[in-house]
Amino acid sequence: MEITCCCIVLCILGSSALGILGNPTNITEGINVQEITIEPKVYAYEGDRAELIYNVTVRSDLPPDRLYEKAVWFSADRQNYCEISQGETKCRGDQFANRTEISDTWFPVSEGERTRHGRIVFRLGNVTLSDTGRYEGEIKTFDNINNVNTMLVVKVGTTTWWNGFGAGIGTLLGSGLAIAFIVILSVKLAVRRKSSQQNLQDNQVQHAHITPVPSEVEVCEGENVAFTFNVTIPANLALDRLYERTVWSPDRENHCVILRNNSKCYGALDFILRAGITESWSPAGEHTRLGKLTLQLNNVSMGDTGYYEGELKAGFIVTNAKTMLIVKEASACQTEPEEGDTATIQTKTGLGFGPGFGVGFVVCLVLVIIGGIIAKFFVLKFRKKDEKSQDVPV
């Protein structure tokens, strides 16, 4: 009897062992390999289409129905978003209406790999300055959520004509020099014939000008920042005719203004307590007078990101210029900037002199020579005309 019981026990243990060996535990079970990544900053130009590419990694044995939602949110309001859920794509929010799309792509998994890779592509067409901000990519499973933020910076202007800049800059430089050479000679001839410079002075543009220095400012959360605008006005324009000098925040509600030598800030109490505006002027020159308009903003936060606009009003003339404020998270300021960020800027600007610069410079020389010949022709023509007028008897 005892021998029979022992045999039964051994059979049960052997069967259990064989069952374990026949059904090994999945090597990815219990391993958290789900993540989503993207470049920390993406640039786009006003009117272009911005493309945000989120790289996704999940477990290779994760069924498609377990990854039940992929989404991209506009972090500023969390009201505008696009998502892919259960194979269906939808976008919500007035800001995203009729100009957004989202798609995902998954790459094949090789035998023995424990992860599966893919990407989520979010496209925003006809971008405007108000689209500047943080965009959050998010993936969800039934037991996990992962997300990551990127900064979309929309710049003024467009680069659609900027392709081939290396060859084009030489041609533009040459054309500019040739045109300037011809214009200068033409002006000198006109002045000589009329024997007066009064017309030139009367035709001078009497508008005020304002330019930001620099055009983009990047600070860390919690720091102080100063926006400086260089101001140029005609020398004969009295300061009391500069009706208003204003710097507007991105929401166009918070602003600081100088009016008749009195400065004040308006808007939310938090902005008024942190902001201040000053100006300084150099002595008037022969034709112009230079000054500086400065907005000081203390203890900046992520919500301060955006374009700040300096504005001058002189009579019925209004002139303005914008500068971009980028606020980085405090944690991001503790590390050195990545090389990828610099590469992105260089790619967007497309700066660099290629072989085409030599061709452009040759065009420059040809245009200068042609301009000189034309100018010489007119000089000789007017000189002969003057000699004939002197030979006429009185």
UniProtKB/TrEMBL annotation:
Q: Quick check: keyword Hydrolase in the entry?
A: no
According to the UniProt entry, where is the signal peptide?
1-22
Does NADP show up as a keyword for this record?
A: no
Sorted UniProt keywords? Membrane, Signal, Transmembrane, Transmembrane helix
Task: Give TM regions.
Answer: 161-187, 357-379
Q: What is this protein called?
A: Immunoglobulin subtype domain-containing protein
Q: Which organism is it from?
A: Branchiostoma floridae (Florida lancelet)
